[in-house]
């Protein structure tokens, strides 16, 4: 015997009960996320190689005013992606692109984890302990 799923569960979405407007918004959001992901990966993987190696504004002002006298090496310089290069990859363009992709992955995982935790806490508050 097939039972019909309960209709009073707010967290269960039933296709026939979802208005077309919401489905259209969901499709648009999904399209935006896919296109955004492609753009971010392209920038991190390909365009990052062409970023300037000259110091940025903060580093330049620091050097101009001799504030960089206590400058130390980066603590992560010996990490697998230290210096924006992947250790063991000898092609500079590929190494830089892979480091950029690794950075995007770390930031996406951290951000996704924070959003997941925030949503989980909000759901727990709404549903009760």
UniProtKB/TrEMBL annotation:
Q: Domain PDGLE spans what residues?
A: 30-120
Residues crossing the lipid bilayer are 32-51, 98-118
Q: Which InterPro entries match?
A: PDGLE_dom
Annotated localization: Cell membrane
Question: What is an example of a Pfam family matching this protein?
Answer: PDGLE
Compositionally biased intervals (Basic and acidic residues): 7-23
Q: Where is this region: Disordered?
A: 1-23
Keyword terms, alphabetized? Cell membrane, Membrane, Transmembrane, Transmembrane helix
The protein depicted here goes by the name PDGLE domain-containing protein
Q: What is the lineage of its organism?
A: Bacteria, Bacillati, Actinomycetota, Actinomycetes, Streptosporangiales
